[in-house]
Amino acid sequence: MIDTPRPRGLFKTGHAFVAPAVLLMILILMxxxxxxxxxxxxxxxxxxxxFDWVGVKNYSKLFARxxxxxxxxxxxxxxxxxxxxxxxxxxxxxxxINSLGRFGNIYKTIYFLPVMATLLVMAIVWEFILHPDVGxxxxxxxxxxxxxxxxxxxFGWLPWVDPATTFYGHGCAQDFPHWLGSxxxxxxxxxxxxxxxxxxxxxxxYLAGLTSVPRELVHASVIDGADSAWDRFWLxxxxxxxxxxxxxVVITTIRSxxxxxxxxxxxxxxxxxxxxxxxxxIYEKGILQNLIGIGSAITIVFLLFVLAVTLVQRWxxxxxxxxx
Amino acid sequence: MAGITLQNISKSFGATRxxxxxxxxxxxxxFLTLVGPSGCGKSTLLRIIAGLESQSxxxxxxxGRAVDQVRASERDLAMVFQSYALYPHLTVRQNxxxxxxxxxxxxxxxxxxxxxxxxxxxxxMRRLRAQVAETAEILKIEELMDxxxxxxxxxxxxxxxxxxxxxxxxxxxxxDEPLSNLDAALRVHMRSELAELHRSLATTFIYVTHDxxxxxxxxxxxxxxxGGEILQLVTPDEIYHDPRDLRVAQFIGTPQxxxxxxxISGGQGVTVNGVPLAAEVTGDGDLAFVAVRPEHLTLLPADxxxxxxxxxxxxxxxxDFFIHGHIGDGAAPVIVRATPAEAADVAIGSVCALAPLNxxxxxxxxxxxxxxxxxMTGAPAAVLxxx
Lengths: 324, 387
Ligand SMILES: Nc1ncnc2c1ncn2[C@@H]1O[C@H](COP(=O)(O)OP(=O)(O)O)[C@@H](O)[C@H]1O
Ligand SMILES: [Mg+2]
What we know:
The structure holds two protein chains of two kinds.
Chain A: H1 8-39, H2 57-64, H3 66-100, H4 104-116, H5 119-129, H6 136-143, H7 148-153, H8 167-173, H9 186-210, H10 215-223, H11 229-240, H12 242-257, H13 261-266, H14 278-288, H15 292-319
Helix pairs in contact in A: 1-15, 2-3, 3-4, 3-9, 3-12, 4-9, 9-12, 10-11, 12-15, 14-15
Chain B: E1 4-13, E2 16-26, E3 31-35, H1 42-50, E4 57-62, E5 65-66, E6 77-80, H2 92-104, H3 107-110, H4 121-139, H5 154-166, E7 172-176, H6 184-201, E8 204-209, H7 212-218, E9 221-226, E10 229-234, H8 236-241, H9 246-251, E11 258-264, E12 269-272, E13 275-281, E14 287-292, E15 299-300, E16 307-316, E17 321-327, E18 333-338, H10 340-344, E19 351-354, E20 363-366, E21 371-372, E22 374-376, H11 381-385
Helix pairs in contact in B: 2-4, 2-5, 4-5
Bound molecules: adenosine-5'-diphosphate (ADP) and magnesium ion (MG).
Residues 42-43, 176 of chain B line the site of magnesium ion.
C-alpha cells in the first residue's frame, strides 16, 4: 500500500460504502445470535408476556438430563460415522471416475443426483424402501429365506457359527429389522442415508481438486520410482489434495451437525431418542414445544461446536497444508 | 552411461500426429539438444524416451537394450522438468532423498514408524544420507537442505531439481526446458553451469528447449525439430553455417536469415529478385529461395551501385547495428548487420544501397525447402562490382 496521507473525506466515503454490508451482517448474523444468547438465560416462551431470568439453569439441564446426553451422543455418533465415510467414499469415487475417462460422466451424474434431490422427497422414498412389511429391502431379504442364499448369508457353513444367531438367520426365522423403528437400527439407517446423500458432493469437490494435481509432479514421482499406484497417491495426489481435504472435512462436519430433514421425516428423533440430533432438538424444544429458553441454549452450544470446527480448519490451513 | 537409440518413433493423440517417424541416435556421454518451436513434439519425444508416454510406433533402446516394455523407473533415467516438479510438502533433503528411498528401501522399510524395526534399514539410510550429502555439496545447496521448496527462489529450486536427478547417478539425464522459468541473467549463468556439470559427470544429456541460444551454446550436437520431424541433426556450428533446410536456416540465428525469391534464368544461371548472381545450381531441384545471413550483407552509400534499400529501423546492440529495411518499394524485408561506423550515416527513412550478394555466402533452397548446392561462376560478385 502506498503510504500517502489520505484526505479525511475519502475516509468517510470509504466507511459509507462499507456501511450497508456491515449493517446487513449485523442485522442478519450478529443480532439473532446475541438475541439467542440472551434468551438462553431465560424461560421465555413465544406469546407469553412475562418471563424470568433463570441464569445458567438451561445450560446445566443440557449437561445433566439424559435426554440431552442422548442428543449429544446421537449427534456425535452421526458426525463421527458420516464424516469419515462420506469423505473416503467421495475421494474413492473421485479417484475411480478420474481414471475412467469417457464413462466417468455417467457415474458423476449418478453419484451427484442425491445431492441435488430434495432430501425431504428422498426421505419419503426411503420410508417406502425401508418399510418393515412392504418395503423393498425386507421383501428382497425375505426372498432369500429357505433357499441356498439363506445357507450362505447366515454363515451356517462355518462350523463354529450357529445360523439362528446371525443377522440373516434370525431375520428369516423371525422378522427382518424394522429399520427406522428399532432403537438398534434407526441411527444406523439415518447415517446410511446421510452418507448416501452426502458423498456425491465430496466427490465433486475432490474431482475439482484432482484437476489441480500437476502432471509434471506425477511424472516426476514415476521417474523417481513410485511404481505402485499407492506410492504415487501417497507421494503426490494425497499431498496435493490437502487443501481440498480440509475443506471437504469441514463442510461435511458442519453439514452433519445440521442434519435435520431425514430425522424429521423418518424418525422424529425416536425411537427412545436414539436419533435425537441437535438440530432436531432445537426444532422440538424451540418450535414444537415453544420452550425458547432451552432451545436457545442448545442453539448456542451448537454454534460453539461449529465455531470450534471452523477454528480447527483455520489452524490446519495455516500450519499443515501445503500449497505450491 | 549409455547411448540411446530411437527408431521410427511415431506418436498420435487421437487423430493428431505429433511425431512422424523420428530416428535419433544419441551417443554415450553426449550433450544432445532437441530444439524447435513450441508444440513441435519435443516434450512428447522426451516423455517417450523416459517411458512416461508410450509411442504409437517404433522402438527405443537405451545402452543397447530395447526398453519398449520397460517401465519408466527401470530405464535408469533422470528427468528435470520445466516446473521443477519438487514435492512441495517435503524438505529439500527429503526431495533429493526420495528417488533413493523409493529404489533402495522396500515398502516395509518405508513405513513411518514400523520401518524403523527392520534390520538392514539403518545401514541403508546411512549410505543414502551420504549420497544426498555428496550431491548437496556438488551443487552447493547444503544450507538449503531443511527448507521447503516454497521457501526457495527459482534458481535454488532449479538446483534442487538437478540434485534429485543426479543423486542416483542415472545412465542419462532428460531435461525439459529446465531454464525457461529463470530470469535472463540467471539463465545465461545456468547455461555454463549445466555445461560444466555435463563435463564433470560425463553422462548423456538430452536437453529440450525452444531457445536456440541455449542449444547453440551448450550442445555437442543439436537436432532441430519441426512439425514432429527432426529436420537436421549436426553440431551447432554446422547447423548455423550449413543448414540443409530453409526452415532450419530461418529458425536458427538472430535476427532471422534474409530470404529472397530466386529463379533460374537462361540455362543454370541464378537470379535473385531479378538480379543475376554469379552462381549456378548443380543437380536438379526447383530453386525458389536464396537466403543470406545479416552479417553477409553489406551497405553501400546511397550513390553506390546496388539495389536501393529503404531503411525502416535501426537496432543498436552496442558493438553492432542491425539495419532493417526493404528493397525498392517491394515487400521483401531485409536485415543487414553494420558496424557503428557504417551505421552512423544511415538515417531511418533514407534510402541506401545494398551491395550485390556474394555468391560464396548465399544458400539456395528449393520449393520443398531442401537445400540446393551452388557453384560459383567467376569471381564473387561483390568484389567485382564494389568500386
Ligand atoms: N496428452 C496429450 N493429449 C493430446 N495432445 C497432446 C498431449 N500432449 C501433447 N499434445 C499435443 O502434441 C503436440 C506436441 O506437444 P509437446 O510435445 O508438448 O510440444 P513441445 O514440447 O515441443 O512444445 C502439441 O500440439 C500438443 O497439443
Ligand atoms: Mg514442451
